[in-house]
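INTERNAL AUDIT FORM
Audit reference: QA-55
Scope: verify that the stored structure record matches its stored sequence.
Auditor: D.O.
Record contents follow.
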Amino acid sequence: MTPIVLKKEQISQLIQEISVGLQERDEIVALALLAILSGQSVFLYGPPGTAKSLIARRLSLAFKESKYFEYLMNRFSTPEEVFGPVSIKELKEDRYIRKTTGYLPEADIAFLDEIWKSSPAILNTLLTIINERKFRNGDKVIDVPLKGIVAASNEIPAENQGLEALYDRFIMRLVVNPMVWRRNFEAVLNDIPTEAVVPVDETLTFDTQKWNEALTNLNNVTISKETLNIIHAIRQKIDEYNKKEANKSSPIYISDRRWQKMARILKMAAYLCDRSEVKPVDALILKDCLWTKVDNKDALSKMVRDSVREFCLFNSEKFEKWADDYKTLKQEIDDTFFHNSDVYDDTTEYKGVKYFKSELSIPYLTRKTTKDRYGWDKNEDVIVHCKKQVYLPFDCFKTKKEFFPLDGAFNELSIYRDPNHNYSYAKTTIQCNFNGSATCSIEYTYKESDSYYASSKTEKEKIVIKPSYKVGDCKKVAPKIKKMYRENVDELMKKYDNIEKEINDFYSNLAQENDTPFVSKKDQTIVTAVVADFQKQMRVERMNAEQLTIKLNQHIDP
């Protein structure tokens, strides 16, 4: 790669010198200069009296032997006033040739104020000049030395006026508002009038050769994966914005050509900061390139900042892979060494259905014959309890379904009668319900007969289903399996240490890397804040991973 023309300190000094006296305009000057150095044009949007023309004049000071052209457009403006008058001498020779000396075709920096008020003839010619850097003068097409046009207006071009194509060529769009800070406003009141021309150290400025070298060297600047992810995220957010019903009548459209030109600006920002790669901090410049209408400027700025926050980490994918490995290993350790659910060994399967084996104490009515004191036989109703083995359906466990137990033949046991047939009319109904718990409630209702008028009595019984092993109880594991998982945990922690070293190295260089004259200090902190938060998240995940070793140490074979 060709040696860098201007180092970051030099470009910062250049911006400082050409911004002198322009209160609250440093960032605008920096971004406008960046666009011009990238070979792109700039649109300054703001009310009259906010130093837009002064900014343009100062930009020309960044170039050696600059030829500056300036014109205030109006609806009566003619091509002669912008591109030069027709040569009477040439016209006599039947040639329509303009005298371009001192006019836009020979300028390297041009300022066109109130550009949208100009005539179609001027605007159409401007489109060709900006696009191709060529100007048709009579029967000849000449190359123009234009580095960039700075246009200004207090309005954006009206829709359906044929101005969309020209507006699309102004890649950098900067809002120039009146001053906000009191001390700066008072400084302007007290200072002498700001001059259009100020002294600039010539060693800081660009000549045409160095400018062309810088443009050529942009081909060697790459866009980092993180920055590409940011750009894709912005595009996706724009699509989501356009799909909302409220925005369908006025969608955001960014042409492929604009994206390509914006990429050149980002590459120039990296190049002028001594870098061969566009970093996420550079992507914040896009907030001043993407907006098309005042109404969508804030929304696009938020999209850019949010996307930088989401994708600015260079090794987040490595950590996400590590986090996935940790979760997988944790799950394997939990499944291998500990019961992750209650285990019930005392169960039986019948025809593919699982049952708890249990025992009921079923009450029933029977008749007992005894002798009275006179020796006569006497029948007496008594309640007897029968111990009976039953099966309770596993699929009713911890539900609120009512069900019947099953007898030894796996038939529903809903009614129980006196097994000795001493009381053939009496019966006991049985109803079960776990009521959403592990305790089964059994309700017995018994009466003398099926008659509606027969009196009945109720008894209740509870059976607690106890697990053989509870959640978290240890499983029996072979020593070689324990050893393998200890080694896996050690390897996981080594991977973490490597990632942590990378992120710490990245963070230590971040402040210097993020220091760019083209992004405000406030916006630069977006990246550093995200990295700091990411480091906190990593430390939390490390502490969680350390619990795996503790778990393995706590495991004791039952």
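Auditor finding: record pair retrieved intact. The chain has a mean pLDDT of 90.
Action required: none
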